[in-house]
Design goal:
This protein is α+β, with helices and mostly antiparallel strands. The chain is built from 2 helices and 4 strands, in the order E-E-H-E-E-H. The chain has one domain: Pemi-like Protein 1, Chain: D. The strands form 2 sheets. It has a two-stranded antiparallel sheet with strand order 1-2. The termini are far apart. One of its GO terms (molecular function) is DNA binding.
């Protein structure tokens, strides 16, 4: 497949067909990882960030009222003897 490299301001750009992005699993992505490997420009799906979606999940749990402590509050027997 041949595509046109276009001038965009001071840069160059290409328009990738939707079917090509779908084959690479990038059809619903808004970002991609790009690198040059052995003279080829390579696009990859970005790695999923650690803890991605945790904040939304915690909010959903709190909204459902399911965020109570499992063991309740408890202290260590010797806590009063500690000085900070």
């Amino acid at each position: 497949m041949h595509i046109v490299i276009r001038t965009i301001g001071n840069s160059k750009g290409v328009v990738l067909p939707k079917a090509l992005l779908a084959q690479a699993g990038l059809d619903s992505a808004s970002t991609a990882m790009v690198s040059v490997e052995q003279g080829a420009i390579v696009l990859r799906r970005p790695a999923k960030l650690a803890r991605a979606g945790w904040a939304e999940a915690a909010q959903a749990i709190a909204a459902a009222g399911d965020d109570a402590l499992l063991m309740g509050e408890f202290g260590n027997a010797a806590d009063q003897d500690l000085s900070w």
